[in-house]
Amino acid sequence: MKTFAGYLFILATFTHGLLAGSPAIDRDAPGAPPHDQPGYNSVEVPDVGAFEFGELPATIPSPPIARAATYIASNSLTANWSSVSGATGYRLDVSPNSSFSTYVAGYQNLNVGNTTSRSVTGLNASTTYYYRVRAYNASGTSGNSNVVHVTTLSPTGPPVVITNPATLIASFSATLNGSVDPHGLTTTVYFQYGRTISYGSTTLSQIKTGNTYQSISANVSGLTASTIYHFRLVAVNNAGTRYGTDRTFTTLTPTGPPIVTTSSATLIASFSATLNGSVDPHGLTTTVYFQYGTTTNYGLTSATQSKTGNTYQNVTANISGLTASTTYHFRIVATNSGGTRYGSDRTFTTLSATGPPVVITNPATNIATNTATLNGKVNPHGLSTTVYFQYGTTAAYGHTSASQSKTGNAYQNVSANISGLTALTTYHFRIVGTNNSGTTYGGDTTFTTQPY
């Protein structure tokens, strides 16, 4: 261990040598800095190499600022806070009292990762809760943020609605978006839209139930190009009618350069992947393809595709010949007589050459009174893999389909016909893959058999 006074002596000597004539620090003079820094003991500091060579220790982050809660429902809410420079994560406390003498189960010093919001569930209706946040990094944890208090909704009541921005805006169509909390009652929800705040048109009604916020979307067509439209979400239940705020969007011109969006890659394997995106040809014949490679210079392109029309269309390309355990960049590119447009850059990393299987549970098909077909995908990940389905009336399953053997490094469809089911019964199922590197379980999916 070395004394902190020793470090100050070295620093003062070094500074004096660089800046001749600079006054030395008199540690006993009035206004001189204190002898010891907070966080160190009265005499010594740890013998840390990085500090000895002139690098300051990393700084503990400042406390974040807790923001107002959003998506407040009867039994849940979303806690929000500010981002803090240098933080690598945050810890959240939620309490039924302002003194934080007790905590909501699971929400005491909860490590939520490097995010600035967190859904809090398992709450009681019509109850006031308090939350606070701390930021952390490798050097330590900040003090507490300010405290935010919020009161959950009653068990039932009028719906809560939010109008969100429109998406997929084209020349003659758009997608309207919002969210609704039915507030414990069966709720009818729809959008009003038109050229003024009198609206005049409505989308088809949708029925929602429950006590959580649910996304609502509606595709509208027959619009006029280059026109401003107003819209809002409307929800009705036995406790009342609620209107979302008014929003606007402007449709595109009848023709013009294409509109492109690069979406996430899927079916990522060791030596292959599927690239995804969307394009609105904007009324002109459009050529579309993907650029990809190990840098943002790309260097490789997928086969070109031709698209026409004035709506957004999905574009996919299966690429192969990749290198295992490698990060690739890609983007969608579209060209028509109005110009060329480039989607944003995205990345994916190929799998290792061999490893545990990758499985995906897909929806059941051919659902009848006593039979159904279970579906999924498996990538054996370079090893001989046994794959089958678990199924039953609960997520404990209890039944399995016959095993199948798969090999290779690409995604392969897997199906199993099952029988002996009971009419009008909901069944759970998932795909399971096993090889020498481990066992992987697909997500749980359900289907309901038909009546007699």
Describe the structure.
There is one protein chain. The chain has helices spanning 4-18, 49-52; strands spanning 2-3, 44-45, 66-70, 77-81, 89-95, 110-113, 117-120, 128-137, 140-141, 148-151, 160-167, 173-181, 187-194, 201-202, 206-208, 214-221, 228-237, 240-243, 247-250, 259-266, 272-280, 286-293, 300-301, 305-307, 313-320, 327-336, 339-342, 346-349, 358-365, 372-379, 385-392, 399-400, 404-406, 412-418, 426-435, 438-441, 445-448. The chain is mainly β and 452 residues long. It has 5 domains: 2-52, no CATH class; 66-151, Immunoglobulin-like (Sandwich), CATH 2.60.40.10; 160-250, Immunoglobulin-like (Sandwich); 259-349, Immunoglobulin-like, CATH 2.60.40; 358-448, Immunoglobulins (Immunoglobulin-like), CATH 2.60.40.10. Strands 13, 14, 15, 17, 18 and 19 form a 6-stranded antiparallel sheet that branches. Strands 22, 23, 24, 26, 27 and 28 form a 6-stranded antiparallel sheet that branches. The longest helix is centred in the first third of the chain and has 15 residues, at 4-18. The N and C termini lie far apart (82 Å). Residues 1-57 have low confidence and may be disordered.
